[in-house]
Amino acid sequence: PAPPDTTPPAKVTGLTTETLSHTEIKLTWDANTEEDLDHYNVYRDGTKIAETTDTTYTDTGLTPETTYTYEVSAIDTSGNEGEKSDPSSATTDPAPPDTTPPAKVTGLDAQPLSQTEIKLTWDANTEPDLDHYNVYRDGVKIAETTDTTYTDAGLTPETTYTYEVSAVDTSGNEGEKSDPASATTMGENTMHVASIDMWYEEKGFWIWRWYDVYTKVTVHDSSGNPLSGVTVYLDMTLPDGSHSTGSADTGSDGTVTFVYQYGNSGTYTSTVTDLQKTDYTYVPDDNAETSETLTVP
Question: Closest Cα to residue 70, out of 105, 18, 4, 145?
Fold first, then answer.
């Protein structure tokens, strides 16, 4: 039998590289004319990446602005590999600018939280190059956020605001604005004194007699409903001209009762000096009465 072929093909010559784009480089080389040529091996940065029977090869899927070095060798039908070509290098082009905007934001919802705040929520944009969202109030951009919720504060009570949200990618492209969503801030919460009632009870022990004087204050909101949790501040003028002051909170029926114990005969005047409750405004001009007087005989 004939001895095995151990003679490798000749070294590949004429290798050139040409940049085609930001992800492609084209290789060309001179043909090997030996009769037992089978194919060529293509190497990138020392690693075999392909086999081909052509004298050209296009390397794809590369990284922009990156230099790659190539070599090519010939392989004969016996599997002998010839010496690699002299290396040839090329650098991919910069990536073209991204001009594709993100998708339109969907699911925008606006809900009033208080007299001065409205909360926005929307569906998340899942595109990998999302950078942030722009928030618009009445057509004017007011904020940027990476969240899918935003609370707009410092607003005017009983005012309607319209919002839109857009997505912005890492290249600065802004997507179409969402469908608008509107909400109206809550009206101002006010409270007032609805009534002041006074009465006394005579008390005694053995030969001693005194009076307990009661003052019941009722507080309503602007709709005329009893308001609980209101701190009522009361100033009582006593028969001798001195004062007794105190404060207490209204119950679920909107009332609170103060008791002055061990009083004497004479005139008592109870005056509401203030009402306090979070998110409510005391409007004295709305009071049915601010003071009440009771005479104990």
Answer: 18
Q: Give the side-chain half-sphere CA count within 13 A for 123.
A: 11
Structure tokens given for 54: 């052509």
> What phi and psi values does residue 92 have, to the nearest 5 degrees?
-65, 155
- Give CA torsion, residues 163, 169, 171, 175, to 10 deg: -50
Short-list 244, 239, 192, CA closest to 217: 192
For residues 234 and 257, what is the distance between their CA atoms, to the nearest angstrom? Answer: 10
The C-alpha angle with vertex 251 and arms to 196 and 248, in degrees rounded to 5, equals 65
User: What does the pLDDT read at residue 3?
Assistant: 86
Could you give the CA distance from residue 123 to residue 112 in angstroms, rounded to a whole number? 19
Rg of the chain (C-alpha set): 44
Q: Token pair 């009570």 is at which residue? A: 157
- Cβ atoms of 78 and 4 within 8 Å: the answer is yes
> Alpha-carbon distance 192 to 200, whole Å?
25
Given a cut of 50, the residues of the chain with pLDDT beneath it are: none
What is the DSSP code string of 111-130? EE-SSS-EEEE-PPP--TTE
- Predicted pLDDT at 279: 83
Q: CB–CB of 178/122 below 8 Å?
A: yes
The answer to pTM > 0.70 is: no
Domains of the chain, first to last: 16-91 (2.60.40.10), 109-184 (2.60.40.10), 190-296 (2.60.40)
Contact 173, 192 (CB under 8 A): no
- From 282, 264, 281, select the one nearest 272 (Cα to Cα): 282
Determine the pLDDT at residue 73.
98
| Token pair recorded at residue 154 | 């410092």
Cα–Cα distance between 95 and 70 in angstroms, integer?
Answer: 21
Pairing of strands 281-282, 190-205: parallel
